[in-house]
Structures are given as structure tokens and as C-alpha cells.
Amino acid sequence: MELAEAIRGRRSVRRYQDKGVPTESILKAIELACWAPNGGNFQPWRFFVVKSRRIIDRMADAVQAKVDLMAGWPEAAEFGQTFERYRATASFFRHAPAVIGIGMGGYQSSADKVLQKRSETDPEARDMIRNRAEINSRIQTIAGATGYLLLALHEQGLSSCWMAGPMLARREIERMLEIPEGVELFALVPVGYAAGTPAPGPRKPLEDVVRVLE
Questions:
Q1: Residue 154 Cα distances to 10, 17, 161, 193, 202, angstroms
Q2: Domains in the chain with CATH codes
Q3: Would you state the torsion angle of the CA atoms of residues 135, 166, 68, 81, taken in this order, to the nearest 10 degrees?
């Protein structure tokens, strides 16, 4: 599969066939994901492959409980059917044959360390810390690996969906996956063979998103 074909052909899939996924295929995709660019080549990502139906159901139940709780708040009523659709699909990953939890260990660059030491006495250093916190290099690192992972799964004929929504139950899921201290969960990626291919979503014209300075 050509790279352009893989990028344009990948879809976020939420319905899967009742068919197992080979662990070897998932591990191959993870190995490729580990070639993603990352801060200082620190490679702080961690992957947790879940094929246990019991654990997947428990994760989905935890997420659904959080969303059901939110649905009972008066603030949710303002969003009516939009929130109800979210509530109905929040735990769809319970039907996936496998789910990959993507976590990340601690990472602090030399710049971060210098700024931390300097910030107690220098307001400009504190401003630099705020700037770096807003772009969060840890999240950029894990996002790069996740993007590679989705493409690597797609190249093998597998479908997936990048999910941040389940992080409503982040701490509960971390305990279920026995994630070690010092590692934080950032996303779940359900994996399976697609039960139908979604139509591609529209993309903005290039001229609307690019500015070339020469």
C-alpha cells in the first residue's frame, strides 16, 4: 500500500466484525509506531494490548458510567440530542476484539530543567514555561506515535479509532490495565475488522489551511 493511499484510505471505524485479531498484527503495528518522532528520542510511550473480553467490558462500563453521570447534570440538558448521541456511542469499543491503551512515561527535556530552576526568580522563565505547557511536548510525542499506529494497522487491513473520550474514566482504566507508576494513559484505540466502511469526511481546501511565506 502506497503511503498516500494509506493516509487517504484510513477511516475511524466504530463497528467491527465478530472476528479475532492476530496479536502478531497488533505487535507489528506497534513496532512501526515506535519509529514516530519524539522529544529527545526518549521514546516514553507504552502500549497495553487488551484482548480479554472481561477487561474490555469493564473499561467500557467505567466510561459509560461517567457519561451517564454527566447526562444527569442540568448542564447536559442544554445540548439535548447532541449529548444523547454521545451518550449512546461513548462505550462502543466494548464490541472491538482488541483495544490498545496508549500511555506515556515522564519526560523532561534539558530546556524544561533549566526553566524549572530559573522560574523561581525570573518572570520571563515562568512565561516560557507557560508557553511550553500550552503546546505540551509529551502530548505531541504520543500523538505522533498514535498516528503512525493507526496507519500501520490500516496497512494490514485492520480498522481502528483514536479515542480520547474514555479518558473520562482514566484513573479507573489505569488500574484495570495495571499501568505502572510513572506512566499515564492518554488514549484507547479499539482494533478489529471493519463491519462496513464509513464514507470519507470532507476536507478543507488547501488554500484555507496553508499560508506560504517566502
A1: 6, 15, 11, 10, 20
A2: 3-195 (3.40.109.10)
A3: 70
What digits encode the pLDDT tens for the residues 82-136? Answer: 999 999 999 999 999 999 999 999 877 888 899 999 999 999 999 999 998 888 8
Q: What share of the chain is helix, strand, coil (3-state, %, to 5)?
A: 55, 15, 30
Across the chain, mean pLDDT equals 95
CA distances from 95 to 4, 50, 59, 67, 84 (A): 30, 12, 12, 18, 20
Which residue type occupies 75?
A: E
Tell me how far apart the alpha carbons of residues 53 and 55 are, in angstroms, rounded to a whole number.
Answer: 6
Task: Tell me the residue ranges of DSSP E strands in 43-182.
Answer: 45-50, 98-105, 159-160
